[in-house]
Write a structure and sequence with these properties.
Blueprint lengths: L1 E2 L7 H25 L12 H9 L11 H6 L8 H17 L2 E11 L2 E11 L6 E8 L16 H30 L11 H4 L2 E8 L15 H12 L23 E8 L8 E3 L5 H16 L13 E5 L4 E2 L3 H4 L5 E5 L19 H19 L8 H17 L1 H9 L1
Parallel strand pairs: 4-5, 4-6, 6-10, 7-8
Antiparallel strand pairs: 1-9, 2-3, 3-5
Bound molecules: zinc ion (ZN).
Organism: Kwoniella shivajii
EC number: 3.4.-.-
Protein name: Peptide hydrolase
Length: 414
């Protein structure tokens, strides 16, 4: 990703940028008034007790910055390389095991170093759901021609965000499966807080972009290869006439892009000193929700916060100054929440962006913040996980104990 424009260059650029931001803010405030309430969704804020339960669910927290998923991802994995394929296969194996729907979009594009094969990976919990929350990160690392630069790993860019999404998918799957089986047996929860039949109409999709990095210098044609391809493909793929969105008779007819509630893009995370600002007025409320999740976790001591790390979520409302995988989607009207550290990590695009750049407390904090955020977005309650099977086994145990002579003695002895 890249700053737009380059803020490192001296004052005239900064002045122009500030002026443009000022102008855009005025225009956009008008647009926002026009759109207000359009995309906002009921957020199911969880009680402190439920948040506590939720953070204790499997999978367990990481014990080191190189174990599990991260260990598999912390290798140079430039687009078109053998390692890139290895990483694709690893990501694929995780989601296949979880039972999510997989779609791969292989394609070839021309880059400054020749023709390269790219593959985006798309995982959907329920591909039949009419709408979705999309979480995304890029799994490629930046290509460098010569040794030692070609050993660049990109731990924060974006191995850690990919690992966080894999961890999140493992956590969400049992909750989503529980809900799915309740609904399919006609027992979906319906009360003043949850209407599971309705909630399940929004599924979760995790997109792993290939080819985010430029091969030379970041330009419109040398960067975000995978995201550009996918946004264009989805725009041109119209929904079947049976799709609920088609009943609204939209013009032009709805495409896959219309099924996206919001695209949450994670990038440059996993190190200390994260600074997450909100760039889009349409999704300021999501930034507020994520900050609230972080604050509640801090308040209840459910995350370890290193010294000086309290305020990750800035209150400044900025406007789109960072080029990244979201841009082609934004240009086509998709709501974006860009979760990126700004300023970038100091190790950005250097060999120092390896495992040593990662902070274990920061990764664990992200794991938990993302759990709370997605559960509250999707309306998932940690108390409902596998309730029927757990209840059945408890009932069975009680019955066995009631019949057991040992239990009778214990009861008599009381
Ligand atoms: Zn990068």
């Amino acid at each position: 990703m890249i700053y737009l424009p380059n803020l490192k260059s001296p004052s005239i650029h900064l002045f122009l940028f500030t002026f443009l931001v000022f102008l855009t803010c005025i225009t956009c405030r008008r647009e926002d008034q026009h759109k207000s309430g359009h995309q906002k969704r009921d957020f199911h804020t969880l009680s402190n007790e439920k948040v506590k339960k939720l953070v204790e669910l499997d999978p367990p927290q990481w014990n080191s910055v190189t174990e599990g998923h991260l260990g598999k991802l912390l290798i140079p994995r430039a687009s078109g390389s053998e390692n890139n394929t290895l990483v694709q296969n690893y990501i694929s194996s995780v989601f296949t095991k979880l039972g999510w729907h997989e779609e791969k979009t292989p394609f070839t594009d021309t880059t400054p170093i020749g023709e390269i094969e790219f593959t985006n990976l798309i995982y959907t919990f329920d591909p039949s759901a009419p709408r979705k929350l999309v979480l995304a990160a890029h799994f490629d690392s930046k290509w460098f021609p010569d040794f030692p630069a070609n050993q660049f790993i990109g731990a924060t860019d974006s191995a850690a965000p990919v690992a966080l999404l894999l961890h999140l998918a493992e956590f969400l799957t049992p909750l989503l499966n529980s809900r799915k089986s309740r609904i399919s047996s006609g027992n979906g929860i319906l009360n003043e807080i949850y209407d599971e039949d309705e909630l399940a109409e929004t599924t979760i999709q995790i997109v792993m972009f290939d080819g985010e990095e430029a091969f030379r210098d970041w330009t419109n044609t040398d960067s975000i290869y995978g995201a550009r391809y996918l946004a264009e493909t989805w725009q041109e793929t119209f929904l079947p006439s049976s799709h609920p969105l088609n009943r609204r008779r939209l013009s032009p007819p709805p495409s896959i892009l219309n099924t996206i509630d919001v695209l949450v893009l994670l990038d440059l995370l996993g190190n200390k000193h994260a600074k997450i600002n909100s760039f889009f007025r349409e999704t300021d409320w999501l930034h507020d929700q994520m900050r609230s999740a972080d604050e509640r976790l801090q308040h209840d001591n459910l995350i370890e916060v290193e010294k000086g790390e309290k305020e990750w979520f800035g209150r400044l409302k900025l406007r789109g100054g960072i080029g990244d995988d979201h841009v082609p989607f934004l240009a086509r009207g998709v709501s974006i929440f860009h979760v990126i550290s700004n300023p970038f990590p100091s190790v950005w695009h250097t060999l120092k962006d390896d495992a040593t750049a990662l902070s274990l407390p920061a990764l664990r904090r992200w794991n938990r913040v993302l759990r709370v955020f997605t559960c509250e977005y999707l309306g998932l309650d940690p108390d409902t996980i596998d309730t029927r099977s757990t209840k059945r086994s408890v009932d069975e145990l009680v019955r066995i104990l009631d019949q057991s002579p040992v239990d009778q003695k214990a009861k008599e002895g009381r």
